[in-house]
Known about the structure:
The structure is a homodimer of 201-residue chains. Chain A has 201 residues and is mainly alpha-helical. Chain A contains 10 helices and no strands. In chain A, α5 runs antiparallel to α6 (94-106).
Amino acid sequence: xxxxxxxxxxxxxxxxxxxxxxxxxxxxxxxxxxxxxxxxxxxxxxxxxxxxxxxxxxxxxxxxxxxxxxxxxxxxxxxxxxxxxxxxxxxxxxxxxxxxxxxxxxxxxxxxxxxxxxxxxxxxxxxxxxxxxxxxxxxxxxxxxxxxxxxxxxxxxxxxxxxxxxxxxxxxxxxxxxxxxxxxxxxxxxxxxxxxxxxxx
Amino acid sequence: xxxxxxxxxxxxxxxxxxxxxxxxxxxxxxxxxxxxxxxxxxxxxxxxxxxxxxxxxxxxxxxxxxxxxxxxxxxxxxxxxxxxxxxxxxxxxxxxxxxxxxxxxxxxxxxxxxxxxxxxxxxxxxxxxxxxxxxxxxxxxxxxxxxxxxxxxxxxxxxxxxxxxxxxxxxxxxxxxxxxxxxxxxxxxxxxxxxxxxxxx
Lengths: 201, 201
């Protein structure tokens, strides 16, 4: 067995420079801050204060608040990239792209696990529900909504996401047949044209 | 404080007649049996054996296996009635009736609580997932599916249920706005015509 030697930890109170476990400590502080204050209420400054580092170090390690949230919640994809895949292309096939992008993301167990964990918490804890609600509406849905010119566009995008979320739960959690076994493309072919209706006036 | 006197409990091994807590004991046995064997594998006979009563007494108290399941899971509505509300009426408004019936059921916190509990368990326990899967497909969806004459009718009904389940989660658990605050009828007006597509060839 080998023992890794580390320099003795500084006992100084206040800000400290990055060390080998600083990154992990920031993530712990971020989870606490997001959990207690929700996505909107949390700030890089407060997370830095909790982990006794300079806010610049948090930015250096993790980038924006959104990127820090994704890292803290272990969400292994970038919402802005998902949104870009959906909105880029002709409007008359946006339903199909939404279904395909969503199914491809949820189809990967590594990508859906952290979302299922957050959703499960949201079912019993209002704080987790608030976090999911704020993050979903401010970060994920907003990027698609802002690209649409339709009445009730928030409600329409929420209806689309509801449908795809429900499909994911029935397909990957409840595993009901035949929904659990058909191919992604068969589902895209069935669901795409239906949710397309939400994108049309 | 008053103390309720009960006759001393018989210690006889084997079947016993119904007593004041027999009903509760059957429900406990039913939850165990359904949990361990799933909906399909559970039987009135085995539940009776677990609670050391005659199967006829289980039927007497609870009726069919389906009715016993509803009682054991504390599901306060009758799936066959829900299905009847959806399938009774013109086929060109079945989407609207499905949305209205589903929203009215989930809109009642007492009615959605046991389903949310089962769904939450299904997210971590495969046995709970199996129970939900079997019950949903054999009992709830089958009643609508059998009334349709369409290709891929199971898959279509599952798509409809997925959508409505997703709406319920976004509306009542995540509580995302504006979805959480619009009226049932506004949602029925938006979702009904969209899911109607699944009922058309």
